[in-house]
């Protein structure tokens, strides 16, 4: 039996490969996996396919901390409610202090000792007084983390013009540079509204198409040489 299972994150909706260790996990079981926030609730969606047992999966897999209890499930729901309240409070303080920034998301650590407030802004922001407001209200360490517009789209999610969930929020692990030259090479009409994603930047899929066309041309050239 594979030591790797595929799990669906309750927080992000993404599928991860996880090392189950000594835990006896099967499809439908909930567990706590390692994450940047100290723990994430996930449900096992695959425990035996080739995808899970592939050798590369072992290197990329996160660790299963333990099987989730009912109290764990309740706590994660409670954390999501706390994050929503923290978001609303921070938004009010941003408006009250007239800060030129856009709040994107709030995430609490599993141990409740730290909260990360993600935001976008055109430049540097003096948010020292805002942090004091937040620390006084929530009694925890506060981190203000600035992100770019592509990261914002990745975190918030949405539907692309293709009718599918955004690539960045569904399966992409990192962003690759996308240039207008890639669109021109594909003989696409350069209409900013049609080739830009929800983030306002060039759509990531332009890079995918460019790579696919490159492989296709390489195969055609190989056939001609043979």
Key features of this structure:
about 230 residues, alpha+beta, GMP Synthetase, Chain A, domain 3, 3 domains, three-stranded mixed β-sheet, about 40% helix
Morphology call: flat
Q: How large is the radius of gyration?
A: 22 Å
For the record, the count of structural domains works out to 3
Q: Give the helix tally.
A: 9
User: How many strands in all?
Assistant: 8
How is the main sheet built?
A: 5 strands, mixed, barrel
Measured distance between first and last alpha carbons: 44 Å
Order of strands across the widest beta sheet? 1-2-5-3-4
CATH-defined fold name of the largest domain: GMP Synthetase, Chain A, domain 3
CATH architecture of the largest domain: 2-Layer Sandwich
Highest CATH level, the class of the largest domain: Alpha Beta
Low-confidence stretches: 214-224
What is the H/E string? EEEEHHEHEEHEHHHHH
Strand content: 15-25%
Mean pLDDT: 83
Structural class: alpha+beta
């Amino acid at each position: 039996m594979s030591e790797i299972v595929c799990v669906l994150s309750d927080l992000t909706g993404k599928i991860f490969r996880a090392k189950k260790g000594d835990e006896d996990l099967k499809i439908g079981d909930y567990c706590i996996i390692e994450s940047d926030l100290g723990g994430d609730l996930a449900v096992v969606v695959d425990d035996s396919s080739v995808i899970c047992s592939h050798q590369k999966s072992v290197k990329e897999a996160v660790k299963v901390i333990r099987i989730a209890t009912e109290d764990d499930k309740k706590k994660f729901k409670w954390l999501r409610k706390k994050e929503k309240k923290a978001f609303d409070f921070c938004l009010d303080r941003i408006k009250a202090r007239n800060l030129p920034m856009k709040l994107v998301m709030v995430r609490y650590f599993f141990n409740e000792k730290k909260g990360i407030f993600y935001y976008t802004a055109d430049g540097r922001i003096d948010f020292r007084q805002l942090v004091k407001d937040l620390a006084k209200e929530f009694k925890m360490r506060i981190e203000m983390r600035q992100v770019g517009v592509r990261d914002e789209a990745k975190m918030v999610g949405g539907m692309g013009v293709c009718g599918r969930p955004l690539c960045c929020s569904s399966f992409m692990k990192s962003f690759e540079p996308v240039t207008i030259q890639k669109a021109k090479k594909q003989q696409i009409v350069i209409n900013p509204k049609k080739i830009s994603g929800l983030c306002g930047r060039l759509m990531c899929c332009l890079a995918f198409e460019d790579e696919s066309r490159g492989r296709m041309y390489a195969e055609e050239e190989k056939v001609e040489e043979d």
